[in-house]
Description:
The complex is a heterodimer.
Chain A: H1 2-19, H2 67-88, H3 109-115, H4 124-128, H5 135-155, H6 157-172, H7 178-215, H8 217-244
Chain B: E1 3-4, H1 30-42, H2 49-59, H3 69-75, H4 79-90, H5 95-129, H6 142-154, H7 157-162, E2 170-172, H8 180-191, E3 195-197, E4 204-206, H9 208-216, H10 221-225, H11 231-234, H12 269-280, E5 295-297, E6 301-302, E7 311-315, E8 320-324, E9 336-337, E10 340-341, E11 346-347, E12 379-382, E13 398-400, H13 427-430, E14 451-456, E15 463-464, E16 472-477, H14 485-500, H15 514-534, H16 545-556, H17 571-585, H18 593-598, H19 602-609, H20 627-644, H21 692-706, H22 722-727, H23 733-796
Parallel strand pairs in B: 2-5, 14-16
Antiparallel strand pairs in B: 1-11, 3-4, 6-7, 7-8, 9-10, 12-13, 15-16
Amino acid sequence: MGLLTGILLALLAVTFLQxxxxxxxxxxxxxxxEDHYPILGACGRSEHLNLFRWVPPQELGEGEEDVIDIWSxxxxxxVNVIVEEYRSMDGSExxxxxxxxxTLLPAGRNMLALAGQLPPWEDPQDLAQLxxxxxxxxLLEHLRMYECALVGRYFYLFGDxxxxxxxxxxxxxxxxxxxxxxxxxQKQERKIRHEIAVSRTSLNRVLLLLNGYGRxxxxxxxxxxxxxxxxxxxxxxxxxxxxxACLPRAWDAKDPMRDLK
Amino acid sequence: MTMRFTxxxxxxxxxxxxxxxxxxxxxxxxxxxxxxxxxYDQQDFxxxxxxxxxxxxxxxxxxxPVEEKHVDLSLQKKYATVCEDIAxxxxxxxxxxxxGFAEQLSELARKEAWIRALGRELQLIASSYxxxxxxxxxxxxxxxxxxxxxxxxxxxGTDRMTNPVDQVRMKQLELPDTIKPHVQSIxxxxxxxxxxxxxxxxxxxxxxxxxxxxxRYRNGYQEVQMEGKSAAQLAGEEDDPESFAYSCxxxxxxxxxxxxxxxxxxxxxxxxxxxxNIWQKLPREDFVDLGPKDTAVFPVKGLGVPGMSDxxxxxxxxxxxxxxxxxxxxxxxxxHAEGTPVLSGIYPEPPAIPAPKHGICSHPFAQRxxxxxxxxxxxxxxxGEEFDGDENAITLAACxxxxxxxxxxxxxxxxxxxxxxRTPVDLEELRKxxxxxxxxxxxxxxxxxxxxxxxxxxxSGGATYxxxxxxxxxxxxxxxxxxxxxxxxxxxxxxxxxxCNLPPETEINPQTNRETCCEKEYLPYLIACKATAExxxxxxxxxSIEECAAMLANDSCSNWEYACTGPPxxxxxxxxxxxxxxxxxxxxxxxxxxxxxxxxxxxALSIKESLRASCRPGCEAQYENTIxxxxxxxxxxxxxxxxxxxxxxxxxxxxxxxxxxxxxxxMNEDPQLATFVTVPPLxxxxxxxxxxxxxxxxxxxxLCQMNGLPRLSPPILCAFSPGKRLSLPLQTYFSTALSLxxxxxxxxxxxxxxxESVGNIATRIGSTLYGEYLEKxxxxxxxxxxxxxxFGRQMGETAFPTxxxxxxxxxDCEIFRE
Lengths: 261, 818
């Protein structure tokens, strides 16, 4: 019976592998429960400060980067890094034994770092629930923070610009004219308007493409897992086939085996 | 007749306004590019190079000789500078007239830019949907590559032969080093397509031609070469580098020549020639084990092309092409050519609307869509008088399955017994069979219950005779049949498989009754028809493999009318399809009967090899390592063990598995493994119903509800009725009038909001339909796996006795229960 046991063991191995194979029913990247995000509330005065910090006037200089330039540069850098991180996820990290699609591919390191600074995921428990599928949501929330920061700056622009100019000119011990303030005010107002006009459209376009590529990603990951399970299954069955080649040894045995008591 | 609009090129033109320098592709990461593209959309100071060249050609004349640099100046509202420039050329001009002209120039550039921006927006939408779905070679697409590969790993050889779906196998090979100079030439040619100019006093680049070339050759240069050729012309040109007559002329047969769409039909012969050189250097010796339709793919090669970070060259057995993996630019309409503007608006006549009862898939455009792919149903599509569906329904295509014959099996091992799943171990032995009658020169040997003796005889159709006492099954093959000898051999070998394990002198006599006849004939024809389809003989028809098998089985079972299909709705149409099939199966290059037997087709060899038993001691079996083939081997071994031998020791009884030893009764009760596991029926997937009318009615309801009315059709009836306010006026005429305006405006706003949401609602409806479809498509497979899992687990839980059967024991079964 040893050979039958061999076959059965092989089948058992196959069964084990099959039992751990990914879901084969159609599923969608449903994301996390609704009550977590996105929280599309009104802008607060300070919630964006984690990312779009208040820059002390002493750090600014005439003719150098202003606050909008700094925010814009940092915002674009972060988006760039996360978009590239999302694109570079090739599925090699997927965990085919995971119980759900959400945990099949973990969230990117940079995305998690950003999400941790956004209001909806400040709580580590909420942050822990993010997966790579939430990249779009995090980017959109990041954009909302950026827009809030820009709008907040816009509301108090004249006063803030005046304070900053006073500090800059104070450092140089130079005379500040109203004309300088108005010019700086107009320059920054134009930049704010430009950023508000461009940022959302740009991100929407990127998300349009990423979503297109990501739309079938869940299915692709399942295909990848299916491919791996198929190979395991094939190899296990090949072992079972090898074992079954011994079956003729058990054919037509005419006597009880080896019990000569 | 072509429709012609002399409208100035709005339908074909464009511009993307650039702040400075030039709009260039591939300038950074994806986000950088999108942001840059958006910034160009938002600003309007600099025109694109094609617009800068186009606008002066359209508006410039003797009175206002416009130069390219004036386009950007007009966009920047520097009208005075433009007019000063013009005045220097033509003398004095009226400033108001000139300013009006400059405004016109600026307006034209803006409109063209708007159209181009719209084209790009559409391209982004297409790029977000298509790359994952289109399955172009060179695309990183797990579904297009890994799923077919996994499918092949699941399949057994018999599945492949009996599955009525025309499958393509893929082999991956390495590219030879000798192609390197040609790849470099391709990079040089593509790089030369980027137009760089300084005419407008700003350096600008135009990538239009480069993008067009990538779109043109995304399906391969041979695809372009074969445009407009008939199937007959293409026959024989596909795989043989000697006979593939390559020719190219830069403007040959461009159906769009002279129009704004000319880039869509343009050919770049130098580029094609280099691709052709690469194709000629492919290692053809590695293709020998591939069928006519099987393909070989080579790793893609990244191309160093300015402005495109993800351009690749792909190579397949039958073609070479270039691909832009994430296309961000469309092929924009041509604005100028050789110093003259190209006006738009010349389009071919739209294709005719499908006739009633012909299905949407009869439309030439729809025909190319996924939903209209070839259906693997016996009789499909049915059109005209045969169509008996609801004329008011939206019908893609109507099909009619035939009643499938019931499979009858005799006692004995029969898993994987129809078709071939093994590869020959001893080719020499298999080829001992000559085209003459070999008789007793052949012997089944210890590993088989039969051996076939193929020979040529001038009879009508093939014939498989009864098995002799020596185990020889004589098979007569003829040259005169609807199929050529290669397929007749396959057909008759399946008949031999039906006979092989039966006692000698058993005869296949299908003409006893209708059901038996269909059962005996359908499967052999199915396998033969599948072989013809694999060899491309059915390509010129829309006859499916199953329909081919059913019609040929009808022909063989001619004692009954339409024995295997049932009487057709339209006999004349059936006869016509039968003639079409006979025509398709005619192969002028078919081998003679002698040749076909001497050089047996690989599939026939596999079937012949599969006649042998699998598990007999000392007999070798060889097969491709797939899940299906392993199961075939295990299954045959188990069947041969349980059905022909006894595994519980004892005296050999008269009947297999008869009780021959007292310990037999000590066997545990049947554990009833998998009693409650049912293998799901294999049913066809279907598209979930799309109830467009119902969805529209729901939208109507929403529109009406917003205005507090019941559903009315058309929904315009639910719009604001001024009568209400007029019959209930406010205190003053002014407030009444204001109320009228505001109510109307409020409703318009609500309606606009709803209309904006319609896209989102439609997306969700589409996703739901997609989900329903996938659930159905995958459910059976997942149930099958679950059933296999349950069965395997139950087998694994079987408890074996720890003691062997004793020779002399007076005890009872208790000794086995310890």
